[in-house]
Amino acid sequence: MYRAQLIEEKDKDLFNDFICSSSKPHFLQNFEWGELKSITGWEPLRLLIWHDDRPVAAISLLKRRLPLYRYLRRSIAYAPRGPIIGEECDQEGERFFWDSVKSLAHRHGAIFIKIDPDIPTEPGVVAESYRMRLAAAGFKPSGNRSGFGGVQPRYVFRLDVTPTEQELLEAMESKTRYNIHLAERRGVSVRIAQDAHDLRLFYDILEETAGRDQFLVRSFSYFERMWDLFVSAPKGHPAARIFLADYQGQAIAGTLAFHCGDRVWYLYGASSNRIRNVMPNHLLQWTMIRWAREQGCSLYDFRGVPGSADPDDHLAGLYRFKKGFAAVFTEFIGEYDLILAPVWCFLWTRVLPAYQKVTRRLLRHSDSPKTEESL
Asked: How far apart are CA 26 and CA 126, in angstroms?
């Protein structure tokens, strides 16, 4: 017999235990990730499906209220790298699971549910079978292939870390291996961040990187909350670590890695404009790979890269850097949407963006004088 349980704070260990023990665990589906996103306007909704006395499926949905929610009661729902459906969940259980998810989304006024499951498009029947199961549940591909390919990266590099360290080093491109040893010879050392001062060091380098490479970075308070939830939280899972590369007494680079189940993900990387020729980033990656092995993991995920090795792509350097560790290019099946309110969905995805585009164009070409107050 199947039953659904709406997860509350007191049930978080039960929920996380199932996520992390599954065959496709992901830190973005952990309880704490929903808590982190709650400070940016998302409301987490977690559901756990039981078959008799054991959990067989779970999902962490992030709900975002649409404008005028107080009056219209409309929202969108997104499950980053979800759902997590266990191997013991049969067809009946999966139907019950999706019926329960739809019911929960309807109760919260969701106009659609977006998912981007951790299912690679590698050769075989797994991906095609999963697509058919999603179609049976009413999902359709969203068709988003811009940038990294979606909200979460559609294209990543992944490394099997079960071989020995020597075998891993030997499999790397010679330049990558050389740069790791170069950093060590020149005196770069890597340590795990221990306190709020180290977090501030990491964030300052991240801001420096963002300014150089022209991307946006979240506020320091966001990283403070991440630290409290994942880094300094009691032992167990989920877990995250910040790694800092020091050279001549200064922190010159840093990375952030998440651990869940048998996997580690490289989430953020930062490097100072100073002393970049000592190759701290290569040693940082190698340290995180070794850390993943220490956690008993089998997979290290370098996260997002462009969809091809096009040398003219502005992210071509990132592609080459990650590929150099002998990681395998991996493409996921992408984003899928389940439309729950077709009219509202059309208004939200088509009419509103078109209106905003026209409005911005009119404002740009307006002849009205710009006062200090309007700038």
From this structure: 18
The rounded radius of gyration (Å) of the Cα atoms in the chain is 22
Q: How many residues does the chain have?
A: 375
CA distances from 235 to 30, 229, 239, 255 (A): 15, 11, 8, 20
C-beta atoms surrounding 254 within 10 Å:
29
* Cα–Cα distance for residue pair 330/264, rounded to 1 Å: 15
Beta bridge partners of 58: 48, 84
Per-residue tokens: 106: 């309807």
Give me the amino acid identity at 78. Y
* Whole-prediction pTM: 0.91
Spell out the residues 6+ positions from residue 147 whose beta carbon is closer than 8 angstroms to its own: none
Residue 101 identity: V
Determine the angle formed by the axes of helices 174-185 and 280-294, rounding to 10 degrees.
Answer: 100
Rounded to whole angstroms, the Cα distance separating 211 from 219 reads: 14
Residue pLDDT, tens place only, 140-153: 999 765 555 568 99
CA 131/CA 153 separation, integer angstroms: 18
Residue 363's SS3 state is helix
The SS3 assignment for 2 reads strand
Pairing relationship of beta strands 110-115 and 75-79 according to DSSP bridges:
parallel
Give the tens place of pLDDT for each residue, 347-373.
Answer: 888 876 775 676 566 555 544 433 333
Q: Which helix (H) or strand (E) holds 200?
A: helix 196-213
Complete domains list, the chain, with CATH: 2-115+341-364 (3.40.630.30), 162-297 (3.40.630.30)
